[in-house]
Amino acid sequence: MDGNKPDNTGGVLVDRIIDGGRMAGMQLGVVVLCLLIAIIDGFDVGAMGFTAPAISQEWGIDVGDFGPVFGVNLFGMMVGGMLLGPLADRYGRRNMIILSIGVVGVFTAAAVFATSVQVLLVLRLISGIGMGGLTPNLIALSAEYAPARVRSTVVTVVVCGMTFGMFVGGMVSSALIPAFGWQAVFHSGGWLALVLLVAALLWLPESTKLLVQQGSHDKLARILRKIDPSLQTDGSTRFTITEQKVTRSPITALFTDGRAVTTLLLWLVFFLNLLIIYFLSNWLPALFTQAGLGDTNALVASSLYQLGGVAGGLALGILSDRRGSLVQAVGGCYLLGAVFLGVTVLGIGSAAIVMVTVFIVGFGISGSITGMSAVAAQVYPTQVRSTGVGWAYSIGRIGSIIGPTVGGIFVSLGTAPTTLLAYMIAPTLCAVVSVLVLAARKPTAASAQQPGQEAEKAA
User: Fold this and answer.
1) 3-state class (DSSP) for residue 13
2) Mapping DSSP to helix (H, G, I), strand (E, B) and coil, where does residue 402 land?
3) Which run of H or E residues covers position 240?
4) Contact 316, 329 (CB under 8 A)
5) 0.70 cut: is pTM over it?
6) What is the pLDDT of residues 252-301, one digit of tens each?
7) In this prediction, what percent of the chain has a pLDDT beyond 90?
């Protein structure tokens, strides 16, 4: 590596260390830990959807009564992203990840003591706040430790971890619930989250770029020497990054320096996509069961939808790092998802057809939100990255609240499963149009990082 070479002002350029040579073991460790946390986060997000049919049978209530529980969990995620994203840009990504995973673990595990929908409402609201804080900070931290040549792939892998966690949750739930009851799902998700809390306390570092901005010289030097052992520093070493320093408040900065229209377009795409994703994630098991696929087939099919999202997200990340055409590819994936939603509706009477088509729906729709997460992480500079990603997800959470909640209303009214699935085609096509408009605009990432414009002395 050549990270210990000075920049053109005599300082050590942090970007050169992060991007130089092969990914160091320390960088890989950060990505792997973020990925594991994302997987458990996805497991816990999907836990309510996978357990709702079993809980409704045990409590003797209609499965549609869980609509508010889905909605309040997503409201908590919206609040968590709005609050903990900006706090991370000020107080550190590591601190907010630790706080968030602790909240998720404690309040997911506590769901086993619930005896009513009202208790579940409170527990899922609080756990949702932690879930909302995890997403933007895992994306931001993994992006900042990944070399530029694989950054999109790394971000999509981490975001795919959330989707993969939902897939694992469905498969595990199909085995755990018949054998041990629905409580086993919440036990598993909660305690595994607390194990990862300990791992984060021990091994998760802070963002190097954020440490530059904060002037934390000693911490920064220790981290960078783990990435590049040849780096020589002393108390007078000056660290710089190739970004303009943001002096405005993080939220205001989302709408300055040419980012306003891009920010609004990102918000619209996230709103539409999360509306669809969370409607499908929460209601597919119940809808497929009502359509006559059987409980086990319904859970497996729902899990294949999540697995398709993992495959789609990984494909988008690899494509972006190789060809740089991420936004256009996302638009194509949305269109693919819309088409195969229609095919799923037509073939819902056959379990074999549904297993295939719902995987492709996941590839197109869930995979696309992974790609959009990578776009959001590239658009914003370090000092507002968690805020930008967090607010995009939080605005999207409005859609994620509307989708499951309205779905619960329609389920309670007896709307046919095929009709409900067909309704999701329209917002998917709207997302296609929104992404095409975003792709037609010039990239705004340059406003986040401009070569030759280093930050002022900070560490």
Assistant:
1) strand
2) helix
3) strand 239-240
4) yes
5) yes
6) 888 877 788 889 999 999 999 989 888 887 778 777 877 778 777 887 88
7) 28
d(CA 88, CA 134): 10
Of the candidates 254, 324, 272, the residue with the CA atom closest to the CA atom of residue 435: 272
pLDDT tens readout for residues 359-398: 999 999 988 888 888 778 777 876 777 788 888 888 888 8
CB atoms within 10 A of CB 9: 11
Task: Show the domains of the chain with their CATH numbers.
Answer: 12-448 (1.20.1250.20)
Distance (Å, rounded) from C-alpha 302 to C-alpha 286? 10
* Cα distance between the two ends of the chain: 21
What the block records as the tokens of 120 is: 């579940």
CB 333 within 8 A of CB 367: yes
Pair of tokens at residue 341: 């939603």
Q: 12-13 and 239-240: which strand pairing?
A: parallel
Among residues 223, 231, 207, 240, which one has the least CA distance to residue 90? 207
If DSSP codes are grouped into helix, strand and coil, which group holds residue 249? coil
**Residue 323, CA distances (Å) to 160, 329, 365, 450 in order:** 20, 10, 21, 21
Residue 409: exposure state from Cβ atoms within 10 A (0-12, 13-18, ≥19): exposed
Inter-CA distances, 449 with 243, 380, 401, Å: 5, 8, 34
What is the Cα–Cα distance from 151 to 258, expressed in whole angstroms? 23
Say whether pLDDT at 354 is over 90.
Answer: no
Using the 8-state DSSP alphabet, how is residue 101 labeled? Answer: H
Q: What residues have CB less than 8 Å from 118, skipping those under 6 apart?
A: none
> Each residue of 406-456: pLDDT tens digit?
887 887 788 887 888 888 899 999 988 988 888 787 444 333 333 333 333
Q: Which helix (H) or strand (E) holds 12?
A: strand 12-13
**Residue 113, class by beta-carbon neighbours within 10 Å (0-12 exposed, 13-18 middle, 19+ buried)?**
exposed
Question: Once rounded to an integer, what is the mean pLDDT over residues 203-219?
Answer: 83
Give the Cβ contact number of residue 257 at 10 Å: 16
In 3-state terms, what secondary structure has residue 246? coil
Which residue, among 262, 286, 259, has the nearest Cα to 415 in the 3D structure? 286
Integer Cα distance of 420 and 214 in angstroms: 50
Q: Nearest 5 degrees, angle CA 323-CA 267-CA 395?
A: 135
Structure tokens at 320: 């972006």
